[in-house]
Amino acid sequence: MSSAELIGFLVLAGAAAYAQTLTGFAFGLITMGGVGLTGLLPLPDAAMIVSVLTLTNAAQMLLKGWRDVAWREFGFVMAASIPMVFVGYWLLEWLAGTQADLLRLLLGLVIIVSSLQLLRRPEPLAKQSGDGSFVAVGAIAGLMGGMFSTAGPPLVYHFYRQPMPMVTVRETLVTVFALNAVFRIGLVVLSGNLPSGSTLTGLFAIPVVIGMTYAARRWPPSVAATTMRRIVFVLLFLSGVSLGAPAVAHLFGGLS
């Protein structure tokens, strides 16, 4: 990675961390979307670095919050999530090597669908959902996490609808993200697909992410939370369209 590319990645990761702190999710979506649009890094390498950054952020939060985790629901989620992380990672490696346009189209669709969540606040349920629902969202989260290191959107929406204390929801989600990141990083190491030393300089984003997370909490922007969510929605939606549209043109152009 050249100096200009590294600076670009650090700016992107910092902006994503700032948005994540203010909206509750979107770190992986913004980072992966920005990388896909700019070509700063190959998508598999970017997903690896996002996993490390996610684990770093989660470890900070869990130093004090692990006692509030809903361990029963966490178990159901992880039972389905872990095997699907393997499936998602295999799909990413296969598509990156043979179907790059299809991979960009899938990432664009994931970003577009996930961005729509920012427009709709989860309506709380009077009664907790059944165990099977946690298994189902765990499987989807594992697949998305394995492919793009973006396990959050369906899981966040489901948990925030449950009649649980907010701190329990937050710490349970963070624990899921952390364990998914550990398994995904382990897969990358075991498969021998570690990014090059030059690409690993992207890990310089760790202090940037920590600093921007602190800045968002300490000096939040003077705009309403709803306005901020709409701004992030527009950015994500346009990123998803910008990624997916050229991929569709190439795919259909190749068929004609």
UniProtKB/TrEMBL annotation:
GO terms for cellular component: plasma membrane. The keyword Cell membrane applies. Its main location: membrane. Pfam families: TauE. The chain crosses the membrane at residues 43-63, 75-96, 102-120, 132-152, 197-216, 231-252. InterPro entries: TM_pro_TauE-like. It is a multi-pass membrane protein. It comes from the Bacteria. It is found in: Cell membrane; Membrane. Keywords: Cell membrane, Membrane, Transmembrane, Transmembrane helix. Belongs to the 4-toluene sulfonate uptake permease (TSUP) (TC 2.A.102) family. This is Probable membrane transporter protein. The lineage of its organism: Bacteria, Pseudomonadati, Pseudomonadota, Alphaproteobacteria, Hyphomicrobiales.
